[in-house]
Design goal:
This is Fructosyl-amino acid oxidase. With 363 residues, the chain is an alpha+beta fold. It is built from seven helices and 22 strands.
């Protein structure tokens, strides 16, 4: 499936843009359509921690490790990029036994994992007696990555259409034939990729396909620039933190999910006092009396499939309609786009995606 073939990708987040770019690299003509602007959904409010920490299935771990590998290749091309870093990560919880068990599980499958009692840039008074340090982990700013990929995609001849509103997959005889937007635009294609974050289950539901959805409400806060010495990603009981381009920091957590209000049109709001509380939790971790101040925050649904595992591949009920829906969109962004593009181009299923097919939800 190369010259003369066309694919329509729905979604301007990392999974959609990555898949579109990999297809265009391989000589498949692609049109990418997105409801709003690029990276204005979940990819624009993701902590985007690159990891395979903790415990999960062997297949999921292998896919995540391949995902990290692709980022390392990108990093090696230009180690000076401020939007992609590998400075490690720290995790601690209120349950020391669970942390030690996490460490043992990581070591058991060869994941780089250490137990530490301090770390540069963090206030010793805020540091627990023991934390798990994963030196090989990193982070990416997905809006910057998407901009980087989109520039390559368009240079190769790919077309990006923004502001289309919600899109629906069109079919004929049980085969995907393209996409129609709510504004009446129609894009014909030999295959369709649905990669629109938490909206993905709703789009395929119109085709009679069920993908369970557990996407919670979430918020990402970006701070004002601050002179803080911490470079690692932090996952703590009250705040998750990572460095961000421009000397800023990205913050999130889940304790305030029930304090986010979602309107009927999908827009979300939260009291500013919660934002300030999260920034204060982050400030309390930093050495040197650094105070973090929120500059902006974004709210919306965080894409999570119902069983927590990724959903990748063609729908058996609608041939040539492919789905990409996962919580780990950052870590899997490059590898998922690569493998999905290969499947679409060649028609050959990739074995690493076999455990994550959407058909696992069929009754």
């Amino acid at each position: 499936m190369t010259a003369g073939k066309y694919v329509v990708v729905v979604g301007g987040g990392v999974l959609g843009v990555s898949t579109a770019t990999h297809l265009q690299r391989d000589g498949v003509a692609v049109t990418l359509v997105t409801e709003g602007e690029l990276a204005d959904g979940a990819s624009g409010r993701s902590l985007s921690w690159l990891n395979s920490a903790g415990t999960r299935s062997a297949a999921y771990h292998a896919l995540r490790m391949a995902g990290i590998d692709r980022y390392r290749t990108l990093f090696a091309q230009d180690p000076g990029r401020e939007w992609l870093r590998f400075d490690g990560a720290l995790h601690w919880s209120l349950d020391e036994d669970s942390m030690r068990e996490r460490h043992r599980a990581e070591v058991a499958h060869g994941y780089d994992s250490k137990l530490v009692s301090d770390h540069p840039g963090l206030d010793p008074a805020a540091f627990p007696e023991v934390a798990v340090h994963n030196p090989g982990e990193g982070w990416v700013s997905l809006p910057h990555l998407i901009e980087h990929l989109a520039a390559e995609f368009t240079a190769l001849g790919g077309e990006i259409v923004t502001g289309t509103g919600r899109a629906s997959v069109t079919t004929a005889g049980g085969v995907a034939t393209g996409v129609t937007t709510e504004g009446g635009q129609r894009f014909e294609g030999d295959a369709v990729v649905v990669a629109c974050g938490a909206a993905t289950p709703g789009v395929v539901a119109e085709l009679g396909v069920t993908i369970p959805d557990a996407s919670p409400l979430s918020m990402l806060v970006l701070t004002q620039p601050a002179e803080a010495g911490v470079k690692a990603v932090l996952n703590t009981p009250r705040v998750a933190l990572r460095p961000n381009p421009g000397g800023t920091f990205a913050l999130d957590h889940h304790w305030y999910e029930d304090r986010i209000t979602e309107a009927a049109d999908g827009t979300c709001s939260i009291d500013e006092s919660v934002v300030k509380e999260l920034a204060a939790e982050a400030s309390a971790l930093l050495d040197g009396g650094v105070t973090l101040t929120a500059a902006s925050w974004k709210l919306g649904r965080k894409p999570i499939p119902g069983d927590g595992e990724p959903v990748f591949g063609e729908l058996s009920a609608v041939q040539r309609c492919h789905v990409a829906f996962t919580h780990s969109g950052a870590t899997l962004g490059l590898i998922a786009g690569e493998l999905l593009a290969g499947e679409i181009r060649t028609g050959e299923p990739h074995p690493m995606l076999e455990p994550f097919r959407p058909d696992r939800f069929r009754p």
